[in-house]
Design a protein that fits this description.
Helix 2 runs parallel beside helix 11 and helix 4 packs parallel to helix 5. It is globular, with a radius of gyration of 20 Å. Helix content is 38%, strand content 17%. By secondary structure, it is α/β, with parallel strands linked by helices. Strand 4, helix 3 and strand 5 form a beta-alpha-beta unit. It contains eleven helices and twelve strands. The chain has a domain of 224 residues: TIM Barrel. The strands form two sheets. Strands 1, 2, 3, 4, 5, 8, 9, 10, 11 and 12 form a ten-stranded mixed sheet that branches. A two-stranded antiparallel sheet has the order 6-7. The structure holds ligand PBG. The site of ligand PBG has 11 residues, from helix 6.
Amino acid sequence: MEIRPRRLRNSKIMRGMVRETRMSADSLIYPIFLEEGSGIKAPIPSLDGQFRYSPDMVGYAVEQALKQGVNKLLLFGIPKEKDPVGSGAYAENGIVQQGLRAIREKYPETLLITDVCMCEYTSHGHCGILCGHEVDNDATLPYLTKIAVSHAQAGADMVAPSDMMDGRIAALRAGLDENGFSNIPIMSYAVKYASSFYGPFRDAAGSAPSFGDRKSYQMDYHNAKEAMKEAELDTAEGADILMVKPAMSYLDIVHALAERTDLPVAAYSVSGEYAMIKAAGRLGLADEYGMMCESTVAVFRAGANILISYFAGEIAQAIKKGDIG
Ligand code: PBG
């Protein structure tokens, strides 16, 4: 008797039956960039196919996402003015707060998640309050808390802190609870590496640090055990969802975390991953759609439950067509 694995690969219908990884558009989150002002739909040069929208124009992006089958959005803000403490991030009429209200009013069926960080709002581009040239961890926590509470007040369904300060999940949880938002979950960027793959995002959001780098707060990519430590701390502090970021170069971490935690695991396929696939496709080096499909399935195969991707709409369509999932 010969064992022939090819028997189960004979036809599309057969392959569809024995697939080990199943996906759903319900698990996809689409990031949107909001820019202060009006009448803005500005293409982002480093992220081919992505735009920055003013609150009055963001409906275009939301409607397209909904049409494609994606109803979960992760909101980033680009303010007009920046200052050393990033006060635009927690202003009652800040850009994310404006965007939240605009989207909430017109599209109540969406789940709105906000990125809680300061780097787009600080004049120095770091993710916290500076003390000299260092980011002061504990001085930053009250600011992050104010940002999260103001997002909740403006209608966020979930907050996602991406700053990588120690103790921020506990601080945010306490702040949200004290202000009547004990029902708002926290998706923690628990395992966030200091990565070159954020390059296009920093260009899109104008959030590159004006000096130095983020290595004193984001993780060293040589470390895997430390990822488990970060995840355990955030779990103990009250995180509801744990995120690994970036995705493609960190699938070992996604897998290890998924095996270990009882919380949902999210992976963020970041700007550099998207830009790389787009560029290779444009140059004719490889098939864009195929690479998108393959890298998406890899994230879920590794054990992620949720994927954040600039391709979210296209992925939802690929799932619907049965090309993946
Ligand atoms: C803010 C933040 C960044 C990203 C998400 N939130 C940039 C950074 O840490 O420099 C990156 C997202 C992407 O590259 O798609 N701190």
